[in-house]
Amino acid sequence: MSPREKVQIMDQEGIRRALTRIAHEILEKNAGTKDLVLIGIRRRGVPLASRLSERIKEIEGTSIPLGILDITLYRDDLSQLDYHPLVRKTEVPFSITGKKVVLVDDVLYTGRTVRAAMDALMDLGRPQLIQLAVLIDRGHRELPIRADFVGKNVPTSRKEQINVSLLEIDGEDKVTIVEKDT
Amino acid sequence: MKFKRKDVLGLEDLTAEEINLILDTAEPMKEIMTRDIKKVPTLRGRSVITLFYEPSTRTRSSFELAAKYLGADTSSIAIANSSVQKGESLRDTAKTLEAMAADVIIIRHNAAGAPHLLARWVSARVINAGDGAHEHPTQALLDMFTIREKKGGFQGLKVAILGDITHSRVARSNIWGLTKMGAEVRVVGPATLIPPEIERLGVKAYHDWEEGLKDVDVINVLRIQLERQKKGLFPSIREYTRLYGLDQRKLQVAKPDVLVLHPGPVNRGIEISPDVQDGPHAAINEQVTNGVAVRMALLYLLMSGGEKDEISA
Questions:
Q1: Under CATH, what is the fold of the domain A13-74+87-155?
Q2: pLDDT tens across B197-225, in order?
Q3: Which of B28, B137, B146, B191 is within CB 3.0–4.6 Å of A89 for a Cys-Cys bond?
Q4: pTM of the entire structure?
């Protein structure tokens, strides 16, 4: 059985509004842009972080540093995979020591990616604090991790799969739930 | 993509796709080397042993640092102070290392094929760090990484390998790797140092430097082993330098943006003149940096990924 598209839970407008709200929340929680940096987790966290930085610039008029994190080398399942996840470059061309780092990803699920991302960040410097922004929180955490900013909470079953499509990578903006192969 | 190899023994058996995967993976590895904290936890708890039957500074330390930057533990066996001096065979040494739970054995040996034997005997992964005059795959991979970085690719690129081709494992690995990626490879040197059968590997041989270096994009200068002269393969070091040592005059016939490589260690002023070695075309120190990145990529590709039907390369 091939994966079947079940239901669309966010469209382009929905994603746009969620990101605008998150941008405001980030600014409110951190009282402005001082020491603030955004770091997107590859792959789909990267365009989301870039959109958030544009939104923040529209609101506050200041540009904040934007970085890219590849967490492949920090994964906890490398020896169990039967394929090689392609390692890509981490691009954080500024010091994160003393900064307020907002990590950005598309979906928060088990929390293992975020754990890996935090370890990767700690190897780059000592941030003042780390916050987490995600477009979708689908539950089923396996680690004590939570998001500070959430676009949409989506209760799911483990059999389902959340697919986030973004203009920059997939040619369109939408979020769908798919029933996985059994 | 899967990297199905148990071992990396040479470039002769690797596919263009596998070579590309190694070079692509080396790029992010190079970024790790620029960090304040040059360490990731990827290979934590894995052990890498270097077993060198020949002297080496850069290859051995390059492998050890590559393993350490990825979080593995390393140990090195220097043959001069080891049980090999007491007559231990390669096989027994290998079994001993395996009994210590080595995950990867990196071997350099003066006999061609020694790494291949070792790979059959042990379940640890084996990387060839140079076997006789046969192959030196990681040197060729780092040369190729440097070429790709500077020239953007290999297709249609003219690459000259200059010097003692007969005794060079660097030359053979480069020829196998570069021709596979679509480069046009030529070898340049005196007839006494180029085997007549070399053209069967798909390269053209030149004994005249002016013809051989004309319009090339890359010149890979090989180290000339001074003891070869005693065997009568060329009359004098001075004559070799005059006819085949890379200097400004010879560089003129190549493309204006020619890239000059040398695997090191350099005999300063013999196979390459100091002004070329230290000049803007040479990337000799960058090659050393890239060597660590390429070896990190190989160690990562060999040691991540679970059960697979493996073959030796």
A1: Rossmann fold (3.40.50)
A2: 999 999 999 999 999 999 999 999 999 98
A3: B28
A4: 0.90
Question: How many whole angstroms from its chain centre is CA B116?
Answer: 17
Of the CA atoms within 13 Å of residue B183, those in its CB half-sphere come to 28
The chain A residue lying nearest B308, using CA atoms, is A82
Q: How far is CA A87 from the centre of its chain?
A: 18
- Convert B49-65 to b/e letters by CB count within 10 Å (16 or more is b): bbbbbeebeebbebbbb
Query: Which of B23, B304, B308, B309 should one mutate to test binding to chain A, selecting the residue with the greatest count of A CBs within 10 A?
Result: B304
List, as ranges, residues 271-300 from B with C-beta within 8 Å of A: 297, 300
Q: Report pLDDT for B313.
A: 57
Query: Interface pTM (ipTM) of the complex?
Result: 0.81
Closest CA to A90 of B152, B30, B300: B30
Structure tokens at B290: 């890239």
CB of B307 less than 8 A from some CB of A: yes
**3-state SS, residue B75:** strand
A91 near B CB under 8 A? yes
**Residue spans per domain, chain A:** 13-74+87-155
